[in-house]
Specification:
Radius of gyration of chain B: 18 Å
Order of helices and strands of chain B: EHEHEHEHEEHHEHEEEH
Number of domains of chain B: 1
CATH architecture of the domain at 3-69 and 102-114 in chain A: 2-Layer Sandwich
CATH architecture of chain B: 3-Layer(aba) Sandwich
Number of strands of chain A: 6
CATH topology of chain B: Rossmann fold
Oligomer: heterodimer
Shape of chain A: elongated
Strand content of chain A: 35-45%
Radius of gyration of chain A: 18 Å
Order of helices and strands of chain A: HEHEEEEE
Number of helices of chain B: 8
Helix content of chain B: 25-40%
Helix content of chain A: 10-25%
Strand order of the largest sheet of chain B: 4-3-5-2-6-7-8
CATH class of chain B: Alpha Beta
Shape of chain B: globular
CATH superfamily of chain B: P-loop containing nucleotide triphosphate hydrolases
CATH class of the domain at 3-69 and 102-114 in chain A: Alpha Beta
Chain lengths: ~120, ~220
């Protein structure tokens, strides 16, 4: 439900990145969305489209890549991709872990045309 | 065409604010709880019942988050504890910036504990760090024993869970042991408490004791 907040942050981030550059058009913004980020790709696309009717991002495409959830085992330190719940270390079978990625939403890159 | 590699976390702005809040809490020795759960889980009722006991031992304030109304803040104020109300006007979660604004209204150096009751929602609040020390999930047995596995992200970063309304167990089809097993499957580090109301008495003393212990622990460091 907070996809609009994320897209508002995206617009701010892109604007900052394009500062001091002579960008005439943005073709594509690529973002990575963590599997545990509670953000739905469809809702992100919808928000992006609705919020970029004007400005530098007008007409730009939003490409969304999925970012896998990765846990680090508390017991043996092994880092592994989680596959649903329960989260169990494939090496030592411990159920103690910390999520080290997969909760975030990243702007990866901006494809644009400069003058 | 030019490709600009940005690699920036969209939550970084909000995470920075959360870190600033955490810094303020630490400097002033204030322990902070971010309480989250579905609408109707019993978050405010839990607070109403633990606050009189808590505030006898630690100086406490509450920040209430709801889409609309001051109803919850009014309920809290009846316990004699200061309550600030945030209305998100439709927003599905509290963020660190909203908390920062409220902190200006509180004398942090004369507080030991702040409990933030997040917007009733078991999804979005989980993605927003407010700067808290403890993340507490409140869920009632009436929501179904499989709630933890249906909404896992809320439990992933939780420190404690409070299962409420266990006095309803004889009347509903839910097994509290199964619920606890599910919580442990998502995050075995979560410390689980149960609350019950029998003969008009709400029992949550273990929650009170644990919170006081954590506040003292932080302040002794």
């Amino acid at each position: 439900m907070h996809e609009t907040v994320l897209m508002q942050n995206l617009i701010t981030t892109v604007a900052q990145a394009l500062e001091n550059r002579n960008v005439v058009r943005v073709n594509r913004v690529t973002i990575s969305v963590g599997e545990l980020a509670n953000a739905l790709p469809d809702a992100l696309s919808f928000a992006f489209e609705a919020m970029t009717r004007d400005g530098i991002l007008k007409g730009a495409e939003l490409e969304i890549e999925s970012l896998p959830a990765v846990a680090r085992c508390d017991a043996c330190g092994h880092e592994y991709r989680t596959d649903g719940f329960p989260i169990v270390c494939p090496v030592c079978k411990s159920t103690g872990f910390r999520i080290i990625s997969g909760e975030e939403v990243y702007v990866q890159s901006i494809d644009c045309e400069e003058e | 065409m030019t490709r600009l590699d940005i690699k920036q976390d969209l939550s970084s702005l909000s995470n920075r604010k959360a870190a600033e809040n955490r810094n303020k809490f630490n400097t002033n020795g204030v322990y902070v709880i971010n309480m989250m759960g579905s609408p109707g889980a019993g978050k405010t009722t839990l607070l109403e019942n633990i606050l009189p006991k808590l505030s006898a031992h630690v100086r406490t304030a509450v920040i209430e988050g709801d889409l609309a109304t001051r109803n919850d803040a009014l309920r809290i104020e009846k316990t004699g504890v200061t309550a600030l109300q945030i209305n998100t006007n439709g927003g599905c979660h509290l963020d660190a910036k909203m908390i920062e604004k409220q902190l200006l209204k509180l004398e942090l150096d004369s507080l030991d504990l702040i409990i933030i009751e997040n917007v009733g929602n078991l999804v979005c609040p989980a993605s927003f760090d407010l700067g808290e020390d403890m993340r507490m999930v409140v869920l009632s047995v009436a929501e179904g024993e499989d709630k933890p596995v249906k909404y896992p992200t809320a439990f992933l970063n939780a420190n404690t869970a409070v299962i409420t309304k266990t006095d309803l167990l004889p009347y509903i089809d839910a097994d509290v042991h199964v619920m606890k097993k599910y919580i442990a499957e998502i995050n075995p580090k979560v410390i689980v408490f149960e609350t019950t109301k029998k003969d008009g008495v709400y029992a949550a003393d273990q929650v009170v004791e644990y919170i006081i212990e954590q506040v003292k622990l932080k302040q002794s460091r």
